[in-house]
Design brief:
Layout (H helix, E strand, L loop, with lengths): L1 H32 L3 E3 L3 E10 L1 H10 L3 E2 L5 H13 L11 H9 L13 E7 L8 E2 L26 E5 L3 E5 L5 E8 L2
Antiparallel strand pairs: 1-2, 2-8, 3-8, 4-5, 4-6, 6-7
The chain binds calcium ion (2 copies).
Keywords: Signal
Protein name: Hemolymph lipopolysaccharide-binding protein
InterPro entries: C-type_lectin-like, C-type_lectin-like/link_sf, CTDL_fold
């Protein structure tokens, strides 16, 4: 009886294996078609070049079954940087606009570091609930991500700076959520 049972399990397992593979392949192809880049061992990443607010970026990623990227290691930080540079986004004129100078003026203090205008993208952390308590979009404390490398001068930790960003020199920073920046969506390895 035991033997029959284990045979049955074996048959089921191999059936699953046969069926899983094509599904993964199909999803893989669909992701590549929709602009994701596959970094084997890490996952799938898509740089959305059209600048958006942090909230908009988060929603857009969710709508495609992804998350606004959470940086978990120096090597993942390297992936984000490579992705950014490969898209030719070394300079972004698009969001050097009036809105930003408005924000800079309103931040009314010379202590705050300047609002970044290039080389910066939204990523998945924030302190929208409790000032200074940084959580990922999955609700974990930022310390659990494994990559907490603040850009010099950051975190600013005030009510204006509540959303997470990534500087392509491989730092994280807190910036105003309304600031329109490119962002990266991330999907775990299939
Ligand atoms: Ca990640
Ligand atoms: Ca804050």
């Amino acid at each position: 009886m035991e033997k029959i049972w284990s045979c049955l399990m074996l048959v089921l397992a191999s059936l699953c294996a046969v069926h899983m593979k094509p599904l993964d392949d199909e999803r893989h192809r669909a992701l590549i078609r929709s602009g994701y880049v596959h970094y084997p061992g890490a996952g799938y990443y898509r740089l959305a070049k059209k600048p958006a607010s942090w909230g908009e970026g988060r929603r857009n990623c969710q709508q495609e079954g992804a998350i606004l990227s959470i940086v978990n290691s120096p090597s993942e930080a390297g992936i984000l940087k490579a992705l950014y540079l490969s898209e030719g986004l070394t300079k972004l004129e698009k969001y050097e606009n009036d809105d930003i100078s408005e924000i800079s003026r309103d931040s009314n203090s010379t202590e705050n570091p300047p609002i970044p205008t290039s080389g910066t993208i939204h990523i998945g952390f924030h302190d929208l609930f409790v000032e200074g308590e940084y959580l990922t979009v999955r609700g974990e404390p930022i310390i659990a991500t494994g990559f907490v490398r603040w850009k010099p001068g950051y975190p600013v930790s005030d009510d204006l700076h509540n959303c997470g960003a990534f500087d392509t020199n491989q730092f994280i920073l807190d910036i105003p959520c309304e600031l329109e920046l490119p962002y990266v969506c991330e999907i775990s390895e299939l």
